[in-house]
Design a protein that fits this description.
- This protein has 117 residues and is mostly beta strands.
- It has one domain: Barwin-like endoglucanases (Beta Barrel), CATH 2.40.40.
- The protein is built from two helices and eight strands.
- An eight-stranded mixed beta sheet has the order 2-6-3-5-4-7-1-8.
- The longest helix is centred in the N-terminal third of the chain and has 6 residues.
- The chain is globular and about 40 Å long.
């Protein structure tokens, strides 16, 4: 049996900008992407803590160290600059493998810089 499980999460990132006149997606600082094991083009679910919106889109690589988390295209209507979001990706895997899989979690600070523990 194949099930869908949490693969990656960037927990409580801040939207730094929105770009309505764009083809679509979310641009994420490469440092955050790597910490959460996300790749460019990967499908993500974005949960907006400020307004409850949930949207699906795909990742675009942002400049490393920039702290950028930018919603592009129609998704830009679902958040405002400063909103706090959770960015989630899922993976399909065998049930038994899923029992021991550990998701990749990234916790940015208020400037979208990684909190290192």
């Amino acid at each position: 049996m194949i099930i869908e499980v949490l693969k990656s999460k960037i927990h409580r990132a801040k939207i730094t900008q929105t770009e309505l006149d764009y083809v679509g997606s979310i641009t994420i600082d490469l440092d955050l992407m790597e910490a959460a094991n996300l790749i460019e083009g990967e499908k993500v679910l974005i949960v907006n803590n400020n307004n409850g919106e949930r949207i699906e889109t795909y990742v675009i690589k942002g400049e490393r160290g920039s702290g950028m988390v930018c919603l592009n295209g129609a998704a830009a209507r679902k958040a405002a600059k400063g909103d706090i979001v959770i960015i989630i990706s899922f993976a399909h895997m065998e049930f038994e493998a899923a029992k021991t899989f550990k998701p990749y979690l990234a916790f940015p600070d208020k400037n979208n810089k990684l909190i290192l523990e």
